[in-house]
Design the sequence.
């Protein structure tokens, strides 16, 4: 089963990448932009057909490694 | 599968070459075999257009342990220490994907150096971009610079020197040349020549994917509108894996398990296996189903032609397999025996026990095509510039124009993106004439520099070739090093064009003459042809990478002024040669006439004396005079140091523009303490060296008597502003 | 004094720090990350580099290795721990130090000598420096932009747990002298017991006048008692 | 309007990051993993209420800056 994990920075954490991307895009003339935040994305293929179990396992991976819980949030989706 | 004309062309083979393949095989090749021939016979691997000319270069000398023909060149620096170095181009991949192209260029050249047993100790690069105003330049520039840094910083080898140039000739075809320098013990150098039958052939490193299939043939073809579609899967560099591979190889090399070792570079598994057994006059048999693959269902064709990075091929002594495997497993790297050496003199490729291809090694290597391509001598311009016809401009304005131009602006914004200090032995970082790296735990250092002069080479290839070797030699002298040997990367256009081939031949003649005269042999190098698009070829751009020795580390020197009230001496004659100068280029966009001539005898005498003065500790700072002439060189010595200069008007040459901006060769500026002046003058006179006392150092200002007076901090700002506004 | 340098795949300042420690008369040992026990040491150093390529988040994967559990145990029982550059990032990932190191504000790798102010000399790491001394030290990193929450920042300030701040030649701490965007120009911090120091600049690169300067020497000599 | 951009590496392009993460997770005992590929994620807030126009603008940003089209694919979603 394939799942995805989307990791985003918590609201009050500074996002230097997003900031630079925002500036660069405005310099390129895209002024409609209000904000941009950058995060990470994982596609995970797991040997597990039961969705609930699969999500649980991926959740563990997030907690153990993929996500820095102090500064990041995450969400898991089925692909 | 029938081999059609289309397939042959797609593999970059000429119909004549295909006929030759049939003759050598006595039959029609299959697709796998065509692929292998195309990989081995293309320009990049076979050097078919350049070989007969490269043979003329001087490659020997007391200092040379290994000249061209191995993965890298090796020189002797005494006490059982050897320096191993080479430069290589990664032009085409960097144009397609600048970050990854540049990064894998660095990765590739590092493997060439550590495959011979060296721990890499320095990285250099020579990068050439189109005009800054060209729409692609900015992103190519940023991508290449971060790619070079990304790889070197991560693997932890300092990037210490380089050159960055802009010229519209590279608008559609940038140049990215990377050089690596390593240190080894003289009695622990590893070569690529296979020996013995039935020896295990081992694959180590990353897994094989579909990256860069046909990369070598891409590097051997001109670009056209369709190149972007034809492109193979882009190679992605993995510096972390390379670091593991480096440490694992060096660990295995402590013992004597290795018979031969070669990195998988261009044309991957094909060229590495063929070259090793070709050198040993042996054959090789590979079981391709054993090749570690990253993707599913990879075919023998794909495995043989993949250019996945961070891989090596090793031929092991009997019974060493388990010992070696443990080392690679410790570093989490694949280690698989994929075949053995044979005495059949064939390349035999099996896949699940079925023979998929079989080609005589000789047909791939020694019998590869060799061309003596037609070439014509350059028609040399007879024009001599008439200064009177050019608008008169203020000297200070002209200087400022040069210092603020993209080509002459300070490159700190680049070098700050490179870790220059890791490994703890960089005693002179980027910014001076050459970088200096101490040999770890020893009291001696090496100096390194890369240089090129495309404009000079375009207008007069022979003089250009000669000049660039001299400039490189001078850069090493100026930091107090004895120049030992060079590597070279010959970036040219389409060799099937007689004029381009002529540029190549004549540049090489110039390089040869200078190297011979200066006892500065060529120990390694690389040729990159077909740099150009749709018949528009780049200017001939040979890049010279030199290595010199500083036998006592304490004696290091650089170009920054050190004291107040020291004497400034200009060594070498100033004739005021302005044709092809920066003065004309940056101020009037005039690119005309011939480059300054290089008198090898003067070059040698002046250089040897400067070397001696530095060695005796009589010099406070030194700088060679190159692009931009005397005034630019003087400004460079002042900018970024604490001191300025007070320079006299010339005593002999009356035309101030010629005097200050002329690019005559063989010159150095020296800063000398008052107390040492007598000694220095005596030595200069005793050797009949032409020199002039041109002024003093002072605080704060760069001043030319009655002509200009500028705060050095202002000059520094001017010199640093270009990129910030770009 | 005995020191241990932890070596991860991808560490690349391990040799440099070993050279510095040995020069300062430490008896040093290199500890491969797969080891499960630590030799008795007075000082544990986690060196700079790109452990595991720094591919996920800098320091994240090294923070999960088996040897790190031993480092945590030792640290909790009072052993001195120094994390430099990637070592600092690893210490934040393990939770031995709070906060995190984000990408540099210009998103570029930065290698240069910067000015650093010693903010607190009441620690085993900084005792030999003078109060408010200005040092010139090399930095080399992609992710040195220190960030932490309000509460922890207050604690750092109140308890004097900031070891170094980026400043200019005159010692002025301002935005202009902040190379990477760090909160309050922070370049290095202690834990509350001050037996752990994490810092982005590389003192081990500043121990030899031929190469650079000797502004890093006192950090190591402070530790020798 | 808020949109998201998910950027993934093209098939066959080496993903050194995914590789290391996969190894680490297996070492941490998560053996059910078949593969993991790492990508990027952006959350973009744009001054545009018309969805079609907003997507078009974000698409431009992707082409110009956010995505390296030579090695990456992307998709745009409404949040
Ligand atoms: N891409 C680069 N990488 C590293 N160093 C560079 C690069 N570009 C320029 N430099 C450094 O900037 C300085 C000036 O370069 P250049 O003008 O070409 O020197 P020179 O004329 O003495 O050969 C040199 O020290 C060189 O090493
Ligand atoms: Mg020079």
Sequence:
């Amino acid at each position: 089963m394939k799942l995805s994990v989307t990791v985003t920075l918590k609201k009050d954490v500074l996002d230097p990448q997003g900031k630079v991307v925002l500036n660069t895009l405005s310099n390129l003339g895209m002024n409609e932009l209000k904000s941009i935040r950058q995060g990470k994305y994982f596609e995970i293929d797991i040997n597990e057909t039961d969705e609930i179990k699969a999500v649980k396992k991926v959740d563990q991976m997030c907690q153990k490694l993929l996500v820095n819980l102090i500064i990041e949030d995450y969400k898991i989706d089925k692909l | 599968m029938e081999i059609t004309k289309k397939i042959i062309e797609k593999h970059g083979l000429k119909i004549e070459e295909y006929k030759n393949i049939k003759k050598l095989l006595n039959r029609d090749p299959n697709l796998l075999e065509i692929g292998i021939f195309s990989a081995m016979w293309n320009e990049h691997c076979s050097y078919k257009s350049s070989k007969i000319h490269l043979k003329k270069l001087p490659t020997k000398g007391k200092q040379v342990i290994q000249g061209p023909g191995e993965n890298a060149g090796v020189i002797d620096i005494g006490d059982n220490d050897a320096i191993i170095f080479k430069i290589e181009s990664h032009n085409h991949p960097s144009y397609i994907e600048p970050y990854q192209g540049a990064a894998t260029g660095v990765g590739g050249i590092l493997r060439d150096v550590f495959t011979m047993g060296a721990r890499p100790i320095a990285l250099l690069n020579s990068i050439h971009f189109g005009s800054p105003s060209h729409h692609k330049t900015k992103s190519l520039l940023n991508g290449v610079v971060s790619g070079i840094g990304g790889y070197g910083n991560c693997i932890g080898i300092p990037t210490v020197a380089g050159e960055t140039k802009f010229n519209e000739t590279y608008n559609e075809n940038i140049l990215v040349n990377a050089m690596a320098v390593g240190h080894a013990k003289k009695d622990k150098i590893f070569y690529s020549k296979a020996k013995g039958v039935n020896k295990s052939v081992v694959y180590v490193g990353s897994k094989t994917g579909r990256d860069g299939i046909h990369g070598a043939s891409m590097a051997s073809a001109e670009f056209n509108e369709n190149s972007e579609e034809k492109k193979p899967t882009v190679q992605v560099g993995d510096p972390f894996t390379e670091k593991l591979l480096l440490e694992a190889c060096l660990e295995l090399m402590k013992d004597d398990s290795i018979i031969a070792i070669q990195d998988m570079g261009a044309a991957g598994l094909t060229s590495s296996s063929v070259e090793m057994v070709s050198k040993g006059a042996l054959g090789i048999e590979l079981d391709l189903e054993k090749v570690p693959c990253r993707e599913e269902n990879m075919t023998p064709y794909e495995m043989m032609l993949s250019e996945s990075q961070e891989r090596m091929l090793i031929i092991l002594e009997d019974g060493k397999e388990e010992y070696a495997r443990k080392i690679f497993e410790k570093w989490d790297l694949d280690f698989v025996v994929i075949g053995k050496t044979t005495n059949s003199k064939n390349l035999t490729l099996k896949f699940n026990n079925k023979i998929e291809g079989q080609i005589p090694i000789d047909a791939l290597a020694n019998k590869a095509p060799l061309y003596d391509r037609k070439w014509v001598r350059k028609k040399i311009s007879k024009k001599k510039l008439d200064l009177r016809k050019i608008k008169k401009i203020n000297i200070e304005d002209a200087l400022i124009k040069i210092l603020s131009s993209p080509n002459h602006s300070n490159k700190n914004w680049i070098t700050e993106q490179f870790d220059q200090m890791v490994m703890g032995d960089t005693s002179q970082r980027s910014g001076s004439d050459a970088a200096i790296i101490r040999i770890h735990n020893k009291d001696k250092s090496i100096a390194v520099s890369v240089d090129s002069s495309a404009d000079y080479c375009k207008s007069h290839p022979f003089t250009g070739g000669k000049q660039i070797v001299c400039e490189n030699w001078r850069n090493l002298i100026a930091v107090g090093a004895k120049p030992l040997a060079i590597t070279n990367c010959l970036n040219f256009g389409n060799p099937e064009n007689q004029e381009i081939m002529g540029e190549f031949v004549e540049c090489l003649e110039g390089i040869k003459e200078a190297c011979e005269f200066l006892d500065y042999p060529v120990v390694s190098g690389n040729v990159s042809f077909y740099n150009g698009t749709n018949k528009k070829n780049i200017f001939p751009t040979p890049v010279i990478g030199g290595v010199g020795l500083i036998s006592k580390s304490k004696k290091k020197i650089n170009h920054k002024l050190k004291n107040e009230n020291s004497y400034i001496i200009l060594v070498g004659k100033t004739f005021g040669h302005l044709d092809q100068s920066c003065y004309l280029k940056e101020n009037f966009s005039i690119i005309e006439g011939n480059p300054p001539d290089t008198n090898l005898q003067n070059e040698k005498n002046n250089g040897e004396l400067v070397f001696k003065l530095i060695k005796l500790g009589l010099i406070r700072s030194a700088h060679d005079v190159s692009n931009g002439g005397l005034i630019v060189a003087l400004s460079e010595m002042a900018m970024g140091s604490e001191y300025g200069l007070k320079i006299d008007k010339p005593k002999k040459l009356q035309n101030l523009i010629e005097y200050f901006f002329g690019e005559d060769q063989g010159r150095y500026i020296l800063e000398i303490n008052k107390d040492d002046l007598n000694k220095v003058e005596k030595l200069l006179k005793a050797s009949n060296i032409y020199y002039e006392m041109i002024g003093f150092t002072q605080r704060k200002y760069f001043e030319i008597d009655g002509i200009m007076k500028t705060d050095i901090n202002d000059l520094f700002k001017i010199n640093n502003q270009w990129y910030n506004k770009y | 004094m005995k020191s241990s340098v932890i070596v991860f795949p991808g560490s690349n300042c391990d040799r440099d720090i070993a050279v510095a420690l040995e020069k300062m008369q430490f008896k040093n040992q290199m500890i491969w990350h797969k080891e499960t026990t630590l030799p008795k040491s007075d000082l544990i150093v986690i060196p700079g580099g790109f452990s595991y390529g720094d591919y996920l988040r800098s320091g994240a994967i090294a923070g999960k290795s088996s040897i790190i559990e031993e480092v945590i145990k030792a640290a909790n029982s009072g052993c001195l721990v120094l994390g430099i550059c990637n070592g600092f990032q690893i210490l934040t990932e393990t939770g031995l130090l709070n906060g995190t190191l984000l990408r540099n504000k210009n998103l570029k790798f930065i290698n240069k000598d910067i000015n650093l102010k010693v903010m607190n000399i009441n620690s085993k790491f900084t005792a030999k420096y003078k109060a408010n001394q200005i040092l010139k030290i090399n930095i080399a990193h992609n992710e040195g932009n220190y960030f932490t929450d309000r509460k922890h920042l207050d604690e750092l300030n109140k308890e004097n747990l900031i070891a170094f701040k980026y400043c200019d030649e005159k010692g002025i701490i301002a935005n202009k002298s902040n190379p990477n965007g760090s909160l309050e120009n922070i370049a290095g911090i202690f834990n509350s017991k001050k037996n752990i120091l994490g810092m982005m600049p590389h003192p081990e690169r500043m121990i030899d006048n031929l190469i650079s300067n000797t502004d890093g020497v006192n950090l190591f000599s402070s530790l020798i008692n």
About this structure: Chain B has a mean pLDDT of 94. The interface with chain D takes residues 96-97, 99-100, 206, 209-211, 231, 233-238, 240-241, 294-295, 308-309, 332 of chain B (CB under 8 Å). The longest strand of chain B covers residues 119-129.
